[in-house]
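Troubleshooting log. The previous structure file for this entry was overwritten by mistake, so regenerating from the original sequence record. Sequence copied from the archived sheet and checked twice against the printout by T.R.
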Amino acid sequence: MVYNGAVGDTQAAMAKVLGLKGLSRDELNAANAQLLPALEHAEPSATLHLANSVWTQTGKPFSHQFLDLCGRFYGAHAEELDLSSARGPRAVNAWVRKETKGKIDEIMDQGAMREGTTLVLVNAAYLDACWREPFQEADSRPGEFTLADGTRKSVTMMQREASLRYAKGTGFQAVALPYGYGRLSLYALLPDREGSLASLLSHLGPDEVSGLAKAMQGETVRLSLPRFRVESALNLSGALKDMGMGVAFDAGRARFDDLVPEPRPIWIDEVRHKTFLKLDERGTEAGAATAVPMTEGAMPAERIPPIEMTFDRPFLLAIRHESSGALLFLGAISDPQAL
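Regenerated output below.
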């Protein structure tokens, strides 16, 4: 959103970090206007909320064109208030609570907004989806999960044997579990026992994830996956600076002239992101129905043993919109919390 207000070196740095690949602003906005509703309505069996907001400081006017653009193309709530007052965090948190149906209660603490804060961007994401084929709760068993430091903790392992898309990569295995009609899928990447999640992450990027999705083949997999929930609150400012967008956060160098009616010093103060994700046995009725025709006749062919995948150590998961390749969630599950 804020890229629409950037000019000069600030615009160039943001374009590089965000991977805009030569898209004009009009093309970028039009693409997002198509993608966001496609994501939110991708899976009839899922509840997916992707919410954006722009909070501006009272008495510091912003361009009406910019605020209108955020609303039309990004569905963004825009509000002007005293960001450094007690009302600032309360207003942001109330908005987040509403957009996530109460699943995310707070994203800003009382001291989050400092005197002089000019602009705050907030993104909240919430997903609640049903598997195409559910895990049976009766099959879930107590298990152990080994943390990176060797500590073991008790978890509940969901278990299922099914035909799933699978791939074996260098140092890891990957499996895809579809939700509902298969328009959204969870990709779970398990490092080999002699490897680690850190080594997997060091050479895995968006192109590799996309290539992995294309390379997967149907295999019979015996899967053991922990039942857990994840809540994470991240400040993305440091990561964006490290990736080359530091100029946008620099009060002396940032140029966002197209955000405001008349040029004045303005910069991004911070970018916060919070997610809620829950994995359990739940599935859809359609996915639970299985037909197993039986016919008398010749001796059956020898059964090929299923591929074993036991997620009992840190792993990577991604929830992917299949038609666009967009990654809605991407997380390293290093310490799963019990439901």
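The chain is about 25% helix and 35% strand. Archived copy saved in two places this time.
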